[in-house]
Amino acid sequence: MRARISYRLGAIFGLIVFFSLAFSYVYQGRQLRQLFIAGVRNDLMRELRLNGQMLEDRPAAWSDNHLSDQWADRVGSALDVRVTIIDLNGIVIGDSYVDAGKLPFLQNHAGRPEITAAIAGGYGESIRYSETAREEMLYMAMPVGVPTRWGVVRFAKPLHDIRMLEDEVRKGIEGGLFWALLLGLTAGIFSAVYLSRPLERIADSADRFLHGESGIRMPVRRSDEIGRLSLAFNYMADEIVRMSRQEEWLREVLSSIREAIIVTNADGQIVLVNPAASRLFPIEGAMNRAMPVKQIADRGVRELLEQVLASGNRTFREEVTARTSKGDRVLKVSAVPVMQGDRFDGTVFVINDVTRLRNLERMRRDFVSSVSHELRTPLASIKGYTETLLDGAMNEPETATAFLRIILQESEQLTALVNDVLDLSRIESGRIIYTFGPVDVRRQLEKTVAVFEPAAWKKGVRIELAIPDGLPP
Questions:
Q1: Beta pairing partners, 350
Q2: Cβ atoms of residues 123 and 141 within 8 Å
Q3: Contact 326, 303 (CB under 8 A)
Q4: Measured between alpha carbons, how far is residue 19 from residues 180, 187, 210, 343 in Å?
Q5: CA-CA distance, 233 to 214, in Å (whole number)?
Q6: Which residues contact residue 373 at a Cβ distance below 8 angstroms, ignoring those fewer than 6 apart?
Q7: Per-residue confidence band for 324, with pLDDT thresholds at 50, 70 and 90
């Protein structure tokens, strides 16, 4: 099942909104923590500097008794911070979180980063986990003692209050981000639907157009890319309809042409065959794609077409005798190259069936030969009877009359032959429609004998007819 584009766009919008809000949440969380820590740092630094100034006047003897621890307990309780006093050797001499009796057991603090920085530069700060308090704390330290430094005072603030405040604020931010995510997803879905619906309509119209609804068009109500796409779809549909009609018209023209037409492409493959060519000789396989010339069943035509294709893009005309579905036929093959500028794009073969024409020409030759013979026969008869009359038959009235009648008949026969030639010419031109019918064979034979009888009599030959009785006409 294909995923709709609206789903894809909605998913993309959702991912963009989700990752944007997630990045914003992480970034704001870090900024919020830094902001809270900065507030605690400012307050703690102010208290540290103020109380550090107070320790400047304390005698160095504080490092040898419990005065420093008492001061640390009192200040730490008042400010709600952890106060630690360390001598220059790193030994804790006062801590508001530790009883005075346990101070000797604390680790040396000389290696603490804030202590090291304070002794070296006059101020030190760090955020780390405290093993004593067992929580993360912000430490600030500064050296004390005038004119001779005798120790370091350190203030520390637990960060659990910051975490609690941060958690509360984060909950509010998370709620806001949740609604922002919901609104963003809703807006993304509506935007995806708004953007994808015209595209889906265009896709549906394209499917309907593909399945035969050639009149489908897209309404153009927008001037953006969707509107331009709709205009392009309508233009494409109009062009396809125009080309389809033109192709259909071309096929009708090719179908109505009596001559066989075969079109090949530049690779010598058959791409078009009209019905006349299909009727004339079979082509092996269905003509639904380009096929090689060798699939033409008739060997003579196939070899001729292959010869023309092998000769290149030149005009060709030749007659061949081919075995077709209608028997042996005389075909006149003409080939014309199809050129696109200087580029050879294929060949058009026009094949005329000239079998009837060649048969007519042969019949005409036979007819001329027969007519010539038929004309010589009455002329010879007339000449023979005339010579006989001149040789003395004119002195015999009955014989002369019979010969003259025969001469008249031969003249009429000669006239009939001339009229037959004229009628045949009219029949070929379509001006006379001839009909076939039965004839009297006896009468035709008697007329034929009468024509040849003078010549036979002159040479002493006797012609007799042996026709059975009852011969049907």
A1: 261, 334
A2: yes
A3: no
A4: 12, 16, 41, 57
A5: 12
A6: none
A7: low
Q: What is the pLDDT of residues 430-456, one digit of tens each?
A: 666 666 777 777 777 887 777 677 677
Q: CA-based angle 275:277:278, to the nearest 5? A: 60
Question: Residue 368 and residue 236: Cα distance in Å, rounded?
Answer: 64
DSSP letter, residue 283: B
Helix (H/G/I), strand (E/B), else coil: 269: strand
Rounded CA gap, 432 and 434, in Å?
6
Asked if 196 and 25 touch (Cβ cutoff 8 Å), the reply is no
Neighbours of 328 (CB within 10 A): 10
Residue 114 clears pLDDT 50, i.e. is over it: yes
* CATH 3.30.450.20 placement within the chain: 7-165, 257-353
Confidence band for 138, pLDDT divided at 50, 70 and 90: confident
**Which amino acid type is present at position 418?**
V
Q: Give the single-character DSSP code of 434.
A: -
What's the distance, Cα to Cα, between the start and end of the chain in Å? 84
Task: Write phi, then psi, for 94 (nearest 5 degrees).
Answer: -170, 135
Taking a C-beta distance cutoff of 8 angstroms, is the pair 181, 73 a contact? no
CA–CA separation, 450 and 379 (whole Å): 13
CATH code, 7-165: 3.30.450.20
CA dihedral in degrees (349, 350, 351, 356; nearest 10)?
A: -170
* Rounded Cα distance, 110 and 346, in Å: 97
Euclidean distance between CA atoms 464 and 152, whole angstroms: 168
**CATH superfamily entry for domain 257-353:** PAS domain (3.30.450.20)
CATH of region 358-458? 1.10.287.130
| Unique residue bearing structure tokens 């500097």 | 49
| 458-467 LR contacts (CB < 8 Å, sep 24+) | 458/384, 458/388, 467/441, 467/442
DSSP 8-class letter at 90: S
The token pair at 36 is: 């809270």
Q: Is 157 exposed, middle or buried (0-12, 13-18, 19+ CB in 10 A)?
A: buried
- Return the closest-CA partner of residue 296 out of 318, 320, 257, 325: 325
**Which contiguous run of DSSP H or E holds residue 93?**
strand 92-95
Instruction: Give start-end residues of each CATH 1.10.287.130 domain in the chain.
Output: 358-458
Whether the predicted pLDDT of 1 surpasses 50? no
Distance CA 250, CA 430 (A): 32
Whole-angstrom CA distances from 129 to 94, 139, 155, 369, 471 are 20, 10, 15, 132, 142
For residue 379, what are its two tokens?
């002329």
Question: Residue 405 and residue 458: Cα distance in Å, rounded?
Answer: 17
The answer to whether 356 touches 329, Cβ cutoff 8 Å, is: no
